[in-house]
Design goal:
Helices cover 36% and strands 27% of the residues. The chain is built from twelve helices and 14 strands. Strands 1, 2, 3, 4, 5, 6, 7, 8, 9, 10, 11, 12, 13 and 14 form a 14-stranded mixed sheet that branches.
């Protein structure tokens, strides 16, 4: 008999956040959320997404033992944009038992039906910078800090409930070259001269962010607005993203491109990889986690390519070469072994083609599923 309990108390929240640590204990590929970030997701005063989202979280018990968890998210801004009535499932973790997983999905589906929703899809988070996608290839690879790891059996659990594939994302590992390709330098120089563009890099990360914050989000929204699951950022979300980025960014991996009016029209961000330090600390900052993280930020051996965004009117004009040239030089000068690309939609061949300048492997794949909600 499976008992489903809605998360309500502080003790429930702690159990919800802590469950993956127990499920994946000793797994070298699993990189958890930071506990403090996850706990704050339950606080409307600290979770900026509560303005645009409704959420319910559930725990599953079998014979009195905690065996699974799931979150349901109604992303109202996305539904308004897409003209659909969808609920997202997120933070799904379970033992390998279809009775458990079915009970968890049913709990989200029942709530969504009562709220008038018609489709359930996921794994998807509160926004596009939250973790998304179920790992279906690359189980022997460590996740980046921005990604979620899961056991291979998760796909069977999800599909047994009637979910079907909606989209896949693929990921690459890019090995640092010994020198910048002359072709990239040439394309970058031509683009800069032809369109009167200039690279800008931060002397001070704080000052750079303050100066280009509005242009950054305008560019991000314009570049990503038509991609799967993307929602625009409200003002609280912008402030929260800046706050989070400021903690883990290294200014040597931040670059912008401005036009002759001084407006930011493109940017690239890479993050020092935090995977190993967060894995070892099991998502906890204290007592030693914060020191491991700070050490990796200062002297990483790999980086995660977080975001590269170019305004639509400047795309396909060589601006990506300006950004990649700068980031590659940074990788070489700092002794970075490789970069992880994170998620790219499988049909986004334009983005994928830019990695051909690297020695690379395509080593992970993730999937988002969907299911029509039975309204009977």
């Amino acid at each position: 008999m499976i008992e489903i309990k809605e998360v309500k108390s502080k003790n429930d929240i702690k159990k919800f956040v802590d469950f993956p640590h127990k499920l994946y204990k000793g797994n070298p590929h699993f990189v958890p959320f930071l506990d403090i970030d996850e706990i704050n997701k339950f606080d409307p005063k600290k979770n900026e997404s509560f303005d645009d989202c409704e959420t319910k979280c559930f725990l599953a018990y079998k014979e009195g033992k905690l065996v699974g968890r799931i979150a349901g998210i109604i992303q109202k801004a996305f539904n308004e944009k897409s003209k659909e009535k969808r609920v997202r499932f997120s933070r799904f973790d379970s033992i390998n038992d279809t009775d458990v997983s079915n009970a968890l999905f049913k709990a989200v589906e029942d709530w969504a039906r009562a709220e008038g929703m018609e489709i359930i899809h996921g794994p998807m988070g509160y926004n596009d910078l939250d973790r998304e996608g179920l790992l279906i290839e690359g189980f022997d690879q460590m996740s980046t800090f921005e990604e979620q790891y899961n056991f291979p059996y998760y796909a069977d659990l999800i599909e047994s409930y009637g979910f079907k594939k909606e989209v896949d994302w693929i990921e690459f590992r890019l090995y640092a070259p010994k020198e910048v390709d002359e072709r990239i330098e040439r394309i970058a120089d031509l683009a800069a001269k032809r369109y009167k563009l200039k690279l800008v890099v931060p002397d001070s990360l704080k000052g750079f962010i303050k100066k280009y914050k509005d242009d950054f989000f305008d560019t991000l929204d314009a570049a990503y607005s038509n991609l799967y699951g993307v929602v625009p950022f409200n003002e609280k979300m912008k402030d929260a993203v800046i706050s989070q980025f400021s903690l883990i960014l290294n200014k040597d991996y931040v670059v912008g491109v401005i036009n002759e009016e001084g407006k930011l029209i493109a940017f690239g961000l890479a993050f020092p990889s935090l995977s190993e330090s967060v894995n070892k600390s099991r998502g906890r900052l204290l007592p030693f986690g914060i020191f491991r993280i700070l050490r990796q930020i200062k002297t990483p051996n790999s980086i995660d390519l977080g975001l590269i965004a170019i305004r639509p009117e400047y795309q396909n004009k060589g601006i990506n070469a300006m950004i990649l040239s700068y980031l590659i030089k940074g990788m070489i000068s700092h002794g970075i072994e490789y970069a992880e690309t994170n998620l790219m939609l499988e049909y986004n061949t334009k983005i994928q083609s830019q990695w051909e300048i690297f020695d690379y492997i395509q080593h992970k794949k993730r999937r988002s599923y969907f299911k029509t909600i039975n309204n009977k």
